[in-house]
Structure formats: C-alpha cells, structure tokens
Amino acid sequence: MKLIKWLLALVVTLILLVTVYLTVFFDPNDFKPEIVDAVKKQTGRELVIADDLSWTFFPVIGINLGGVSLSNPEGFTPKAMLEVNKAVAEVALMPLFSQQIEIAELSLDGATINLVTRKNGTSSFDGLSGDNSKKAATPAAETSSNAKLNDINIGGISITNTQINMIDEAKKQTQVFTLKSFTLGEFALEQFAPIAFEFSATMPDMTVSSEGKGELKLSRDFTQLVVNGLKIDTVVEGESIPNKKLETSINLATQIALDKQQLSVDIAQLTAASITAAGKVGVNYATKIPQINADFQVGDIDLDTLLPKTETAAATEQAPAASTPAVEPDLSALKQLDVKLKLTVKSIKVANLSTQNWLMDVGIKNGVLDLTKLNADLYQGKLLVSAQVDARQAVASYQFDKKVTGVQIRPLLKDAADVDLLAGTANFDVKGKGKSLIPEQLKKNLLANGHFDINDGALYGVNIPQMIRSAQAKLKGDLSPETKEERKTDFSSLTGSFSLDNGVATNPDLAMSSPLLRLAGKGTANLLTEALDYRLTTSLVNSLKGQGGSDKDALAGIDIPLAITGTFQKPEYALDTKALLNNQLKEETDKAKEKLKDSLLKKLGGF
C-alpha cells in the first residue's frame, strides 16, 4: 500500500515539475518568430500569430492560439489566404505514457479561407509546397507508419463559423462556402460516435443549404471506416433550378476500406422533389480512374412538374431571338469516368409522354457511353433500345438500334407531338448513326434505315372513300353539296420502309390496304421543315357500299391519284381529278375495245 502511495506521489511530483518547467522556463511564444521565419522561407508567405499562445495542464495538456493569419501571394486581394479566430487542442497527459491518445478537445472557430484565381491563371496555392516538402514527407511518413497506438479517445471535435471564399477574377465570380458547424461527439476506436454538420453555399446562380447527422466508427487497425444512419437534408434555390427550389433528402450507410481504397454506399432512401429512389454504389479508388458500380431503383418520375409549361413556353418563344450560335456539348469528362450503372424506374413522364417499367444498363469507359440495354413499356407496347455515344473526339458520334412493338400509335403521337394523324397497333424498327449533338445538326447528320407496320388502324384528317365518291359525283356533273362525314380512313394494314439522310426521310414503298381500297406510292418527310410530299395511287377493291356507294362501283379497279402535302401538324390531301378522269376514260376505252373484240370474234365464228 505504501508502495502505491509513493508511486502516486512520484507521478504527481513529475507532473508538477513538468508544469513548472513549461510555465517558467518554456514559453511557447518564444518560438513564434522561428515559426514565422520557417513559413516565410518555405512558402514566401507571411504568417501572423497576433494573440499569445497559452498552455493548459493536468488533467490535459494543450495549447490555445488565436489571431492567426497566412497571407496570399503578393499582389492578391484579399491579402490573407487563411485567418483563424481561435483554435484549441487539449490532450490527456497520463495516457500518453501507455501509447494512448486521449484528446479532451479539438476546436476551431472563425476560420476564413480566401482562395483566389487570377486572370493570368495564378492561384492562392502557388508556392505552398516548397522543394523540401517531398524530402520532409518521407521520414514523416515512415515515422507515422512505424508508430503504433494502443487506443485513441476524443472527447469531442468542434468546428464552427468556417468560411471558404473561392474568387475567380477572370469570371468576376465569388463562391462562398460556409461550414456553420461540424461536431464529433465522444470518439473511441471500434465504437460509434455521433457526428453532425450544418453547411451552406452561395454561388452566382444558386444557393445551397444542407444539414446532416449520423454516426461513425473507425477500426482499431485504421483500415475500416463505417458511417451509419447518415441523414442529409438539402435545399437548393436559384433561377436555374426547376421551380426555383429543390429539396432533397438522403438516408445512407457507407463503409470505406482504407487499406484497399474501396468504398461502398447503401442508400436506404433518396428523395428529390417528388422522386424517390434507393440503391447501392461501389467505388474502387485505388486505380488511376476510380471504378464506380451503381444499382438504383427509382419510383415515378414526372419531369413535367419540374419543368412548368409556362416557363417552357416562354423559353421556346425567346429561343429564336438568341444570337449565340449553338456549340457542341463538352463531354470530355467522360474520359475520366469508369462507370457501370443499372437502373430501374417505375415510370417516367416527360413532355406529356408516359412510359413505365424502365430497365437500363449503362457503361462509361475511355470516353465512350454504352447503353447496352434499355427496355420500357410504351403505350401498351414495348420499347427496346441499344445505343452508343463516342466522346473521344471534339464532335461526338453516336449509333443506335431501336425497336417498338405493339404500341398504340394514336395516343403516343398525341401526347408526344400533339399530332392526331394515325391510329393502330404499330411496330417500328430503326438503326442509325451520326455525328454532332447540336439539335439541328442531329437532324442533318443522322443516317438511318428502318421499317414500320401499323395494323387495324385509321388515317385521321382525311376520308378517302368520301373524296373518291365526291370526285366521282362531280365527274358525272353532280355539283350538290357533299355530305359531312368523319374525316377518317380505316385500314387493316399500313406498311413501309424508309431511309433518313440530310434531314429528309424517304419512304419508297408506302402501302395501305383495307376491305374497301388499296393505296400505294412513295414520298418524303422533311424533319427540318416538317414538310410532307407524297404521291400515291389508290384503287377501290370493289365498291364503296357501306360508305354511301353502290353495289358495283364504276371506279372499282381504277387507279386514283392522291397527293399528301402540308406539314406534320396540318397534312393536306388532294385527289388528282384530271388524272382520275383520264384513267377512267382509258378504263372505259379498254372495256369498249374488249367488247368490240368479243363481238367480232363471235361474228367470225368464235375464232
């Protein structure tokens, strides 16, 4: 018992002697000139420590400092790169003898960092790493790697009122990032510790505010960092933001293998506006270009609510007045990505077009975006797409293969383009390639070939049987007013192939059939001007009975010319009555010749 008392007395005496020595013979302020001089030699910057340094002692040993500033390079504004109002570091003394670190408090308050980029490209970071930095780093690294700690305990870390000002003189822009608070609660190895933060940013076109909380744990061998229950709520506001305000919330857990340089994130819930999602992300950052694997499941996406029609219409009206020429989008960032993404989406609505059950596989590597698969339900049918975008050149190139099966074409056209032109069950396939992603250049440079067939449908805006009946009546001299009937032509099938070049789709073999008539011909559709130019012929199978015609129609079997012109929005249909009359006269002449021939043969005894 006496031995223990003597040992305790010895320890206390030792601590008192150290305290007396540090306070009487060792003044940390004596080293301020040496520290300032060393910083000046290493970086060429001015370090100022305005306040006196002060010690704290048992049960912790620490140092308080304040009024610290580090200058920017000469000629920069602001003059200070770093300013610190107050910093406190306190470490428990006794555990150090057992190779244990117990930090009672680490706090930083009122730090301001001014990072300036000048018009000539120089920045606040220039000159901070001197020639001796690499040489000095090696032994330090070796020392830290050889040192072994039995334990680390932190009473708490607090960072408050820290502001980073990023100033770009060339763009005349200043971005302000403020860490209002960051706290780490009582921390020990292999135990979860609470964390929380509050952050805001002010940029030229938006403001961001964010806050979050969760808990983290570090393994005893410093190889595994785990963050659990991290919930982050963010609000983004600005004129360029959909509806000028976007609120997001994310709840996630992450594990970082520090030794293998791998990270995995499990997102339990992500919400942005009315969109909800969940998924997993894995990152291997040990490679030169980090490898990212992601798998997301997304709910309903209604992009129309994020892009109000009023604003979209206003932007459309103002678009022609813009004098700035369109430029190719910069996709150079794709070269720095190695990503594999699997995505499922319950539904997507954009520009009033509705799709469901999206399944997508995307890869990005070496500047090439490869959409290996995209499946979706589309108006009672199926959409299947594969595509590739090659961004290795300044002007990107692309290729695609698209198939649509069993789609109800009328509601699709009405929702997508407000066009009421066709109805029926459509099958469509097209393969294409091109260069440039500027919208107008897309139409001009696209080369494509495809085929379509539409079954059990109707052509809206024209009633071909009525047009034929009206033309037939006029040829007979009947000028009475036409009866009003629905402008629709039913058909059992409408087929054709097409090629696309220089913005013009050429359709050489359009064919339509129905119980009443046949239609065939060719034409073009200009995607740039939306102009239609078709020259077709239609012929009656037998009669127009059931649509106002007689049992045996006089025009049955006669080719009737039909022209389709106008635009996608307003197609115009016209019968060539002159050619119709000529064809009818020719038909009557041929019949008369046949009748005369039969009569002569009878008179000649059947020869």
From TrEMBL:
Basic and acidic residues composition bias: residue spans: 475-490
Name the UniProt record assigns to this protein: AsmA family protein
Native source organism of the sequence: Shewanella baltica (strain OS195)
Cellular component, GO, one term: plasma membrane
GO BP term, pick one: regulation of protein targeting to membrane
InterPro entries: AsmA, AsmA-related
Domain AsmA: residue ranges: 2-255
Keywords: Coiled coil
Coiled coil regions in record: 575-602
UniProt lineage: Bacteria, Pseudomonadati, Pseudomonadota, Gammaproteobacteria, Alteromonadales
A matching Pfam family: AsmA
Record region (Disordered): 475-494
